[in-house]
Structures are given as C-alpha cells and as structure tokens.
Design brief:
Number of strands: 27
Distance between the termini: 41 Å
Strand content: 25-35%
CATH topology: Methylamine Dehydrogenase, Chain H
Helix content: 10-25%
CATH superfamily: YVTN repeat-like/Quinoprotein amine dehydrogenase
Largest sheet: 4 strands, antiparallel
Number of helices: 6
Radius of gyration: 19 Å
CATH architecture: 7 Propeller
Low-confidence stretches: 1-13, 18-30, 363-367
Amino acid sequence: MNVEKIFASRAPSRAICALVLCLLASTSLPVQATTLAVLQLPALPTTKAQRAVLLGLARAGERLVAVGERGIVLLSDDAGTSWRQAKVPVSVSLTAVQFVDAEQGWAVGHLGVVLHTQDGGETWQKQLDGERAIALAVQIAERDAQLPGGATHLEQARRMLADGPDKPFLDLYFRDRLHGYVVGAYNQIYRTDDGGRSWQPWMQHLDNPQGLNLYGIRAVGNDLLLVGERGLLLRSTDAGQSFQALESPYEGSFFGLLGTRDGALVAYGLRGNAWWSDDRGDSWRSLHTGTESTLASALELRDGGLLLASQSGEFLFSHDHGRSFDKRQSRSGGTVAAVQQAVDGSLASVGLSGVAADQDPRASGKP
C-alpha cells in the first residue's frame, strides 16, 4: 500500500489509520447503514481482542488502556503482560485515548465518536457522535455566517452535512477533568469546558482556510499546538481562543506532536521526518532519525529520553535532544501505532497485530 498516495488523496486518518481503513468494518459500509449499526451496537466480547487492530494507547494511573477496531478497549494492570476487554457502548473503531488521572479518560474514533470513562476504562459512555457534531457545526456556522471568514466555515459545515457523519476524530487533548479538545478530518475541532457534557464547534477559531486534516493536538507550557496534513502547524497563545498558522519547515503531513517536560516540541510524520523546536514552534531543527518509515508515535521517557516509533516497528531512542538515535526493532515485529511506558519502566505498544510488551533496559533504567 502506497502511504504517500493515501494521504495525497486526503484519507482522513493518521499514519497508522491509513494502513487499516480497508480493514475496519466502520468504513466498509454505506454511511447510513454504518451509523445505525456501529453507533448503537456495543462492542462484542472476543477472545481475539489482544490480536485486533489497535490504534491508541494511554496510561490511566498504573493501568494501560488500549483502543482500536470495532470499539475494542483493552485494560492491563500488570504492565502489558495480560489484558482484558472493557465494556464499550459502540462498535465504531477508536483511534486515540487520553486519561487525565487514574479514573477520568476519553477516547475518540470514527463516525465522530467521543467516549468518556469515570472508572479507569472499565466502562464507557458516548458523549458525541458525527450526527450531533455536524448539527452543532451547521448551527454555529449559520449563526456566524456574517462574521469574517463566516462564509467559508458555513460552506465547510454544509459540505460535512451533505457527506454525512462519516468523519473520524483522530486525536484529543484534555488539560484536566473539564477542559479539552477533540480533532480530526477536514479541520474538525470541538471544545468542551464541562468534561464533555456539552461540546462547541471550534473550527472558526482556526487559521486553516483549506480545511486541512488535523492529526495531533498538544499543550506546551501555556500554548496549544495543532499539526496536520501538508505541513500544517497552528498555535494558540490565548488559551485556545484563536489558532494562528506557523511557518512550517516541511510540506508533508505531520501525524503527531510531543511536548517535553522542559518545553521542547517534537513534530513527526511521513518517511521518518521529525522536527525539534525549542522556541514554541517559531523555528525548527530537522532530526536525522535514520529511517524512511512513517513515524506514528512519540514518547518522552521517564529518564528524559525521546522515543520515536515507526509504522514498520522500529523504536528510535535519543538521549541528546534528537541529535542522534539508537534504533532497534519492537519485540512485536509488526506495525506500531502507539507506545507507552508502563509503571515498571517497560514499554508496551499496539498496532496492526494487537498488543505487545517490550522489556527494554534503556527505558526502565536497569543496568
């Protein structure tokens, strides 16, 4: 499969999602049939869940939580050695997950789904879906049609309405239990200030007139940053009230963004491209990763090191701010979509082949 061609045609998902669109049931049926089925059908328990296509991975306190196709959510309380399936009210494929503490977390996915958990991922409730999201977008766009840029936003909202609720959310960022954002295909961004009980379309706050896909959102210090296709970089310095385009060092898609504890930024994307910024995105330094594979995930390790994971299963470690990398292959030997460091310092990853535990002495701090 040619990843470049996929993204040239604006397939609405991040790096790893592009490889599995043809595998996911939620993208293989007509929109109306899909909406009726997967938004109302709870995820089915399966003994093969650990080998399912999994796209997101997060820490919930000491627990690991993985999400993926057909609404599968897996929980591990032993650093990724064993997993069990959680209760999920939808069968739509999930793309990303985040927890703000050991109990409160959110997951996003296809058909505009946003899920919330209050018990560490044991059970989930739907807070938003594509039908509701589009209705909100059209309502706000019609209200603001006479404002600067309003006509463009109204045209985009009406186009989404005509297409149907098939647009996925691809990433999310929550600052705490109340305040967060979800982002996705075709400039979709929604904001909540009450923990997801209500959502506000936020597209009109972005300097993204072409409606480019949004693949990642992260906070660094007091700033919020967005990355997307065609080198899109957006930054907010006013608590998310407005996002301004930054000069990009790169014309290819950025699939993710990492903010380090000392305030640095790492943006990563196609063909091993990764960039480092020490000044909140005003300037960027190219990182020589030594791989031609698309980078799907980034992680700051507990010892301050940087880990980049590629879709071909490479783990790239750096302890000099990305100036050099030490490469090794993931134990899974397969495609990596996301990676996390478990409470014991080991690494866990998910991808096309499901979950994998990678005991790594460099990550755990062992001699």
